[in-house]
Amino acid sequence: MTGPGEHGHDRLARGADLRSEVDQLLAVLAAEGPAGSVVGFGPETHRYLAPLAQAGFRVTAADPDPPAGRTFDAALVLGSALGGLVANDRMLTALAGYAGCLRPGGLMLLDLVDGQTVLGARLPGRGLRELAGPDGRRMIGYADEVDTDEQVYRLTVRTWRLAEDRVVDRSIVVRDVRYFLPRELAFLLSVSGFELAGTAPLAGQPDPAWLRLAWARKA
Asked: Which of 15, 21, 132, 201 has the smallest number of CB atoms closer than 10 Å to its CB?
C-alpha cells in the first residue's frame, strides 16, 4: 500500500499530476457553475491558473491578497494551503478572507489531507529515491508521521543535489499540515459562511488517495 509520505514527497518535491487535477477542477466548475472568474490563493495554487485561463476563465492570482473591491465566481485554495495554517484561528481568518472575495453563491475549491486515510495508514514511513532533472541528479529522502495531539500530518523531505557522485547542495523541509475528518470539515466551513457541496479523491494520486478535493458554496 502506498502511504501518505510517498505521495506527499512527490507533491512537495516534483508536483503531482497537474493535468489530471486541472481536468478535475474543470469538471467541478462545470457541474457547479456558472463560473467565469477565478481567484487563486497560495503559491502552489498559481500553477493551476494558466491552464484555467487557456480553458477560457478570467483568472487572478491573489498575491497575497485579491484586488480590493472585486468579487469572483470561484476561488482556488490548493496545495494544502488551508491545512498548512494548522491552527483554528488562522484557518478561520483565512476562510473569512476567501468568503469576502466571492460573490453570493460563489464556489471555493480546496484540497485537504483526509484524516480517515492518514489515521488508517501505517506510519511513520520512510523512503529514498533518485530524480533526474535539468539541474542534475537529486536524491530525495522523506519521513512522515502523524501527531494526533496537534492533529497534523508531518512530512520531512531531505534533498541532496549531486554532480557526478559528489553532493553539491543539500536542503531540508519540514511541513505540518492539518488533517480533517468529514464532520469537522463541514462544521469549519459552516461557521465561516460556506456550505460543503461535495468531496472526492484528488485526481492523479495512488490508491488509497490521502488528499481530497472539497468544494463549498458561499451562503
From this structure: 132
